[in-house]
Design goal:
There is one protein chain. The chain is an alpha/beta fold. It has one domain: Alpha/Beta hydrolase fold, catalytic domain (Rossmann fold), CATH 3.40.50. It is built from eight helices and six strands; from the N terminus they run E-E-E-H-E-H-E-H-E-H-H-H-H-H. It has helices at 40-45, 71-85, 97-108, 139-146, 156-160, 166-181, 193-196, 198-210, and strands at 4-10, 13-21, 24-29, 49-54, 90-95, 113-119. A six-stranded mixed beta sheet has the order 1-2-4-3-5-6, with helices on both faces. Helix 2 packs across helix 3 (97-108). The longest helix is centred in the C-terminal third of the chain and has 16 residues, at 166-181.
Length: 212
Amino acid sequence: MKPREETIAVGPTRIQVLVGGQGDPLLVLHGAGGNRGWLRWMDAVAERHTIYAPTHPGFGRSDAADWMEGIDDLARFYLWFLDVMGLGRVHLLGHSIGGWTAAEMATMRPDVIDHLVLVAPTGLKPEVGEILDIFYYPPEELFKHTVFDASTIPERERLFGHPPTPEEAEIALRNREMTARLLRVLERCGHLPLIERPDEFAGLVLDFLRRA
């Protein structure tokens, strides 16, 4: 299922949004690495839900929002986004800092959230060890610390099989800079279950969203 890309203005800030699928709306908030586009797991979920996958302000080709100083501001922005899009009540899925943002949204406006899916959310301390400092490692080295077994990623070649272009490198740096401003366990999986285990991940999301 091929999504469409839209530019949505939320106040003075324009952001890029991928929209695709059919059924009840599911807002998908990406992690610190930026919006990786339409991923394999989305094809399965989009058969039953209309997916809205925005690129956060300050990330990718979305406008900056200099007034944002933390995740709570990003959460308020997406509550505003829901109003602009006319989405009264949505399912909400967030990965990494997107998970942290989704949790903030749920505490601010629980009335607009139907089901909440938090995927490897930033801000929760692990039971063993410490939280990984993603700014300590360069992007090419950080990847090996965020997956359990890279050889199992179905979309590995498309997503990571080539050196970044100058534009991609610039976007990656912008994503890291913006990040600096601001449960269900899958065995044998790292911080990126959306691409490490896309089929199982999609099944878990669909099972959860079916619940009344």
